[in-house]
Amino acid sequence: MDESGESGRPRSDGAEGTRPRGTAGSSEQPPPAEDTPEKAARPPRDEPDLPAAAGRPKPTGPRPQVPTEPAPTTSAPAERERAPYEPGERKKAPVPPKARKGPGGGLLMGRPFGVPVYVAPSWFLVAALITWVFGAQLDRVLPELGGTRYLVSLFFAVAFYASVLVHELAHTVAALRFKLPVRRIQLQFFGGVSEIEKESETPGREFVLAFVGPLLSLVLAGVFYAGMRLVEPGTVPGVLLAGLMISNLIVAAFNLLPGLPLDGGRMLRAVVWKITGKPMSGTVAAAWVGRALAISVLIGLPLLNQSGALGGEAQDIGGMDTVTDALLAAILAAIIWTGAGNSLRMARLREHLPELRARTLTRRAVPVESGTPLSEALRRANDAGARALVVVDPDGDPMAVVREAAIVSVPQHRRPWVTVSGLAQDITEGMRVSAELSGEELLDTLRATPATEYLVVEDSGEIYGVLSAADVERAFVKAMARPS
C-alpha cells in the first residue's frame, strides 16, 4: 500500500538490545602528573572547556579525549551547567535515541529478491472477514455452491493479497534498482508496507518509486479482465476473476489518491520537491493533503455508501450497515491521518540527522595507564581540560574506556584507592568509531554495538577522543526540537 523509509532514530532499527547510557565526567582533578603519556587525542575546537579549566590556556598539540567528571568548584551558574555530576551524586544519563520500529514481525513467507516477506497476524483477521463477506455475495450469485462458497472465498482472499504482494514487490524492485536498501515487506490489515530504509536522492526517482506500485495493480486488473473474457460468465472462475479485477482497480485508485502515506502522496511530494527544490516542502504539502483526505474519507465514505453512489442500494440511516460503514471509514481515516503524521516526523528527523557528527560531539580525553588511581586520573583530565579517560597500555595504545557511570558511583574519599582499570570497559571492534561518521550512519554504528562510551579515532587510527551515548541523545533531542 505504501513504502516507508527507515532512518531513524537510534530506531534501534527494530532490534533494541541493551540501550547505551551516558558516560560520566570526573570531578576531582589536581595538577597533572609528569608521567602522563604523550599520546593523546586532538580535541574538537568547538567543545567548551570544563569549568575547572576556565581561565587556563588550552593545551596545544594532539590530546586524548575521555569523559571525566568536572572538578568541584564554586563557579558561576553557566559553569556548573557543564558539570552535571557532583562528587558522590548519581544520575542516570539519558537513553540514546532509538530507531523507529517497523510493523511487528509475523510469519516469514519467503525472500524474493533477497527481501524477507512477512504476513502480520492481523492479516488472518482480514482474510476471515473477506471470506465471510465474499462468501455472502457468492451465495447470491452462485447459490448452488452451498458451503463450498467459503472455500472459494478463502481462495479469493489469498489471491487478492497475492496481488497486494505484487504491488509491494514493484516498489521493492524499483528501490533495489535505485540502490536503496529494503528491510522487508509486510502484509497486514490494510494492504502491505515496503520498508525502504533510505530516501530517494532525486524527485524523479521518488516519483517512479511511488508510481510503480499502482501501475502494477492496474496491469493486474487488465490481466484479470482479459482472463474474465476467456471464461464463461456466472461461473466460479468468472466470478473470481471479476472480483480480482475490481479489487485491483480499487487498490490502484486508492493508492493514487494524492496524500501521504499513499503512493499518490509520494508522487505529489516528488512534484512539489521538483518545483521548490526542497524535499521537506514536498513532504509538508503531501502530509497535509493526506490529513484532509483522512477527514474526507471519515465523512464522505459513509455518505456515499448510504446514497448508493458506490454501486450498492441506498440505505436508511441508522441501520447496521451504516454502523459498519462508519467503522470502516474511521479505521481508514485513522490509518491515513497517522501515516501522514509519521511521514512528517520522519522527514523532520532526516532533515536534522546530518547535524549529528561524531567529530563535534566527541569529548576531549586523556590517556592513563591501568594502575592509575582514579583521583589522579581525574586531576590529569581536569588539568588538560578533558572530560574523558582512556586506559592505554605501556606503548600508549588504547585498551579500554573508563565508564562515566562507574566514576560517579565511587565516593570521593575512595577515589585515591580505586584504579581506573576496575571502572573501564574493554574496547571492542564495534566501539571504535570513525571521527568522520555523521547522521544516520553514525546512529547505525552506535546501534550495532550498544555501549555507554565509544573510542573515536581518525582514519589513520590515531585517537581523537571519546563519544558518549548520552551526548548523542542530547544532541538528537535538541536538533529535533528545532523547527524545520
Q: Can you characterise this structure?
A:
By secondary structure, the protein is of the alpha/beta class. It is built from 13 helices and twelve strands. The chain has helices at residues 77-81, 121-141, 149-177, 203-230, 236-255, 263-276, 279-307, 320-352, 358-361, 374-383, 404-409, 439-448, 469-481, and strands spanning 2-5, 107-110, 117-119, 182-188, 191-196, 366-369, 389-392, 398-402, 424-426, 432-434, 453-457, 463-468. β7 and β8 form a beta hairpin. The protein is elongated. The model is unreliable at 5-104 (pLDDT under 50).
Question: What characteristics describe this protein?
Answer:
484 residues; 5-stranded mixed β-sheet; 4-stranded mixed β-sheet; 12 strands; 11% strand
Please, what is the average pLDDT? 78
How helix-rich are the residues, as a percent range? 40-55%
- Counting DSSP H or I runs of 4 or more residues, the number of helices is 13
**Quaternary state of the chains:** single chain
Strand order of the main beta sheet, please? 1-5-4-3-2
Shape: elongated
Distance between the termini: 28 Å
Order of helices and strands: EHEEHHEEHHHHHHEHEEHEEHEEH
Contiguous runs where pLDDT drops below 50 for at least 5 residues: 5-104
Outline the biggest β-sheet.
Answer: 5 strands, mixed
Name the beta content range.
Answer: 5-15%
Radius of gyration: 30 Å
Structural class: alpha/beta
| Number of DSSP-assigned strands | 12
